[in-house]
């Protein structure tokens, strides 16, 4: 398979339909949309697929849910934003235990609470392979921090 960043660039070229409000598009930690009054909405999404990103037989479902939210919160925080609302989409094989899903959702809810975000909705669908997708909307009152914005002498802070 092609390198992730090369693939992102190829996709970006195909979908680049500029909007005056879109300040940061594909290729950074999150997209940023100007809302007016100096406010920006930050949008990001990540997927976790069983057998690729986690092993449902070996990793507690609560931990998987927490990690799915944390990945998105990290993207919004990296851009200087506050997480606000998230959507959870679950693709579940027929034999998925309801208890496993409940534990996963407990992890999602706990991580959202810890980050100050609210689970605003989502989607359930049947699938051959177990997967979850989180979309997170955040906000900031200043220009988003960009991957390309670091300069020599800047301070680097690590969290987590």
Keywords, separated by commas or semicolons:
160 residues; 60s Ribosomal Protein L30, Chain: A; six-stranded mixed β-sheet; 3 helices; 31% strand; globular
The CATH C-level class name: Alpha Beta
**Which CATH architecture?**
2-Layer Sandwich
Count of discrete domains: 1
Q: Superfamily at the CATH H level?
A: PurM-like, N-terminal domain
The arrangement of helices and strands along the chain is HEEEHEHEE
Spatial shape? globular
Which class of secondary structure composition applies to the elements? Answer: alpha+beta
Strand content: 25-35%
**Average pLDDT reading:** 87
Helix content: 25-40%
N-to-C CA distance: 31 Å
- At the third CATH level, what is the topology name? 60s Ribosomal Protein L30, Chain: A
Strand runs, count: 6
Spatial extent as radius of gyration? 17 Å
Largest sheet descriptor: 6 strands, mixed
Provide a descriptive summary of the structure in words:
It contains three helices and six strands, in the order αβββαβαββ. A hairpin with a 6-residue loop joins strand 1 (22-24) and strand 2 (31-36). The protein has a single domain, classed as 60s Ribosomal Protein L30, Chain: A, CATH 3.30.1330.10. A six-stranded mixed sheet has the order 1-2-3-6-4-5, covered by helices on one side. The radius of gyration is 17 Å and the shape is globular. With 160 residues, it is of the alpha+beta class. It is 30% helix and 31% strand.
């Amino acid at each position: 398979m092609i390198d992730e960043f090369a693939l992102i660039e190829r996709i970006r070229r195909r979908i680049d339909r500029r909007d005056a409000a879109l300040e940061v598009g594909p290729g950074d930690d999150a997209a940023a949309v100007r809302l007016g009054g100096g406010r920006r909405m930050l949008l990001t999404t990540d997927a976790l697929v069983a057998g690729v990103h986690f092993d449902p037989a070996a990793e507690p479902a609560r931990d998987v849910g927490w990690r799915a939210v944390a990945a998105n919160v990290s993207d919004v925080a990296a851009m200087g934003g506050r997480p606000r609302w998230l959507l959870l989409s679950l693709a579940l094989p027929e034999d998925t235990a309801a208890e496993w899903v409940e534990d996963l959702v407990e992890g999602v809810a706990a991580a959202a609470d810890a980050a100050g975000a609210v689970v605003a909705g989502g989607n359930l669908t049947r699938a051959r392979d177990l997967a979850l997708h989180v979309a997170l909307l955040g906000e900031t009152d200043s220009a988003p921090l960009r991957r390309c914005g670091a300069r020599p002498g800047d301070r680097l802070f690590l969290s987590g």
